[in-house]
């Protein structure tokens, strides 16, 4: 088909516009691949989380050759939303917040931290109270004030609630008052300072608070303890490019002998997958939780 000058110019303009768009997209993709944005759940306050993970972030930057930028949201859902909207590339999530992120944001679990202290990829939830005047048994929780961490926290809400209900305690109606503190440290201090009678927290974060001198172990008692919970996973957004995924997974596997938050000294990150968190889904189902309504 022969083109007149006007048609040819229109066609040439369209081609140039397409080329410019492609160039812009390529530049954006390159810029994105040069930076790795890492989301961290707020198990402690934001600055404490960044400090605790800084050495690992530095090693990740060195091993991938990328600029690593950590991000801590105000709550668990803030990290999930950042994944969903492609504002971060990978994230450290709790087991339950991962299951939620997988459903609403397409996040994929790919690694879990293995520490030299335990050599395991699991931890426990426990309900703590003050030894001098707190409830000493599950039955004693009736009519008492209680702190959960976050609605999407595995060890700070999902597992303890299911565990208490399995022992015959109505976690929906049995407490006189329930709060969501926002972090495990905040829940521990709420018990220590008498703001609540008991709280559900991760055992390793309680141990960390003791080791930091924030509280004394002998001042507390354990009211209830869960079965092992699959470790908090490192996840990436589903549409992260394959090259970056490969670099990040390889880099994390080699990160050793560095502190990783409350978990202790790392012995690398082991591979994991979505199936490892089916027990979390089953627990949510037992509580009749609608994951879709929690986003």
TrEMBL record:
Pfam families (UniProt xref): Phosphonate-bd (PF12974)
SUPFAM superfamilies: Periplasmic binding protein-like II
InterPro entries tied to this protein: PhnD (IPR005770), Phosphnate-bd (IPR017797), TAT_signal (IPR006311)
One GO term of the biological process aspect: organic phosphonate transport
Record keywords: Signal
Gene3D superfamilies cross-referenced by the UniProt entry: Periplasmic binding protein-like II (3.40.190.10)
Record bears the keyword Lipid metabolism: no
GO cellular component terms given for this protein: ATP-binding cassette (ABC) transporter complex
Record's signal peptide: 1-31
Family: Belongs to the phosphate/phosphite/phosphonate binding protein family.
Alphabetical list of NCBIfam families matching this protein: 3A0109s03R, PhnD
Name of the protein described by the UniProt record: Phosphonate ABC transporter substrate-binding protein
Gene name for this UniProt entry: phnD
């Amino acid at each position: 088909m022969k083109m007149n000058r006007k048609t040819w110019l229109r066609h040439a303009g369209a081609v140039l516009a397409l080329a410019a768009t492609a160039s812009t997209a390529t530049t954006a993709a390159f810029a994105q691949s040069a930076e790795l944005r890492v989301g961290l759940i707020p198990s402690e306050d934001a600055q404490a989380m960044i400090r605790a993970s800084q050495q690992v972030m530095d090693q990740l930057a060195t091993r991938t050759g990328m600029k690593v930028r950590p991000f801590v949201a105000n709550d668990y859902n803030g990290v999930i939303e950042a994944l969903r909207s492609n504002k971060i590339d990978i994230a450290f999530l709790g087991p339950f917040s991962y299951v939620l992120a997988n459903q609403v944001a397409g996040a994929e679990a790919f690694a879990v931290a293995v520490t030299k202290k335990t050599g395991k990829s699991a931890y426990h939830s426990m309900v703590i109270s003050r030894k001098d005047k707190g409830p000493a048994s599950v039955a004693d929780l009736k009519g008492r004030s209680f702190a959960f961490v976050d609605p999407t926290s595995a060890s700070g809400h999902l597992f303890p609630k299911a565990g208490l209900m399995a022992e015959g305690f109505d976690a929906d109606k049995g407490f006189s008052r329930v709060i969501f503190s926002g972090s495990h440290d905040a829940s521990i201090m709420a018990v220590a300072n008498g703001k609540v009678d008991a709280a559900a927290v991760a055992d390793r974060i309680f141990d960390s608070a003791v080791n930091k001198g924030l509280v004394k172990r002998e001042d507390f008692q354990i009211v209830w303890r869960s079965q092992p919970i699959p470790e908090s996973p490192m996840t990436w957004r589903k549409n992260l490019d394959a090259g970056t995924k490969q670099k990040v997974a390889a880099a994390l596997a080699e990160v050793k002998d560095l502190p990783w938050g409350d978990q202790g000294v790392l012995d690398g990150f082991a591979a994991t997958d979505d199936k490892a968190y089916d027990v979390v889904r089953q627990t949510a189902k037992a509580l009749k939780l609608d994951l879709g309504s929690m986003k």
